[in-house]
Specification:
Elements (H helix, E strand, L loop, with lengths): L2 E6 L13 H9 L2 E4 L6 H10 L3 E3 L7 H4 L5 E6 L2 E6 L8 H8 L5 E3 L7 E4 L5 E4 L12 E9 L2 E9 L3
Parallel strand pairs: 1-2, 2-3, 5-6, 6-8
Antiparallel strand pairs: 1-9, 4-5, 7-8, 9-10
Length: 167
Amino acid sequence: MVLRLTLLADTHLPKRARVLPDEVWDAVDSADVVVHAGDWTGTGLLDELEERARRLIACYGNNDGADLRSRLPLVARAELEGVRLAVVHETGQSQGREARMAVLHPDTDVLVFGHSHIPWDTTAPGGLRLLNPGSPTDRRRQPFCTYMTAVVDDGAVSVTTHRLPPR
């Protein structure tokens, strides 16, 4: 079975934006699974995604308070059509990230993370794929706000990074 995923992180609602862009909601609506790698900052979006997404896999981030931490894990894990997925907010500095995460998540095929707001798609020497969708609401020093979509098909994962138009 082919699964369509929407990958999000660092939404910071309602602090950095009031709502997700329409394009992101369209991606959520067409996805089989929505993944969120933390820094929600408020429970409103979590409530909306729990109601609207077919399936939500998510963790909390460093900017998320007790209300979110009581509802979400530090690390979320799931198996999607044979692909072992982990979701975590922070991975530390970029130098050495792949090797460090491969040690911390040895039974993982794909690790989705956030925190930096920088889109990232690399593969560690042992095969662990690391994905950061960036942020759809707070580009920081990046030229664009971003999110990712992915397709899981027969154990293979293909990923697209989407740039959002300036608001």
